[in-house]
């Protein structure tokens, strides 16, 4: 996204603009989210975090999704630094959820069902290590759930081609404030209209039973 969020076709390149072109002066403060004692957090990366955040926030039981960076080795990454592809980090999302309404298994289903896990280092139209597919885990139970999902999907759907990394979370860095709820706050932004909204609508059509009532 540092240069322009597409290398797919020349026409799409002209249509889409870099989210770095989104002025920080346009930032809008949001009410701080305060998770309850029962709230759990799961972490996923599958392309542009604007898209991923919007998808998870449409799911029943998800209280909040926060865009950020994870999976790398550089401390305190920024959007500009991860755009170089040299920090090791990927654009990721922290998903705050109520385990009584959404299980970790459900979130894994959402993750694999909302992107192409066979693509190495990217999701169309964004490519680079910062857009790679990663399912993070914090304990053995979560890792087993992810591994089982991959095994089943490789056998039944993807013919052993899943490229998703399964990585233990070490640190999640929250992204700059202007990235949070980007799709909701910028409905007319060109990338949002051309990529984020269609990706969300595709997910909603595929998993209507998982959606919050207000997003049907």
TrEMBL record:
What is this enzyme's class at the first EC digit?
oxidoreductase
Q: Which gene encodes it?
A: msrA
* Keyword ATP-binding annotated: no
Q: Read off the InterPro entries from this record.
A: Met_Sox_Rdtase_MsrA_dom, Met_Sox_Rdtase_MsrA_sf
Give UniProt keywords alphabetically: Oxidoreductase
Q: Under which name does UniProt file this protein?
A: Peptide methionine sulfoxide reductase MsrA
Q: Which residues form a coiled coil?
A: none
Quote the catalytic activity from the record.
L-methionyl-[protein] + [thioredoxin]-disulfide + H2O = L-methionyl-(S)-S-oxide-[protein] + [thioredoxin]-dithiol; [thioredoxin]-disulfide + L-methionine + H2O = L-methionine (S)-S-oxide + [thioredoxin]-dithiol
Q: List, in alphabetical order, the Gene Ontology terms for molecular function in this entry.
A: L-methionine:thioredoxin-disulfide S-oxidoreductase activity; peptide-methionine (S)-S-oxide reductase activity
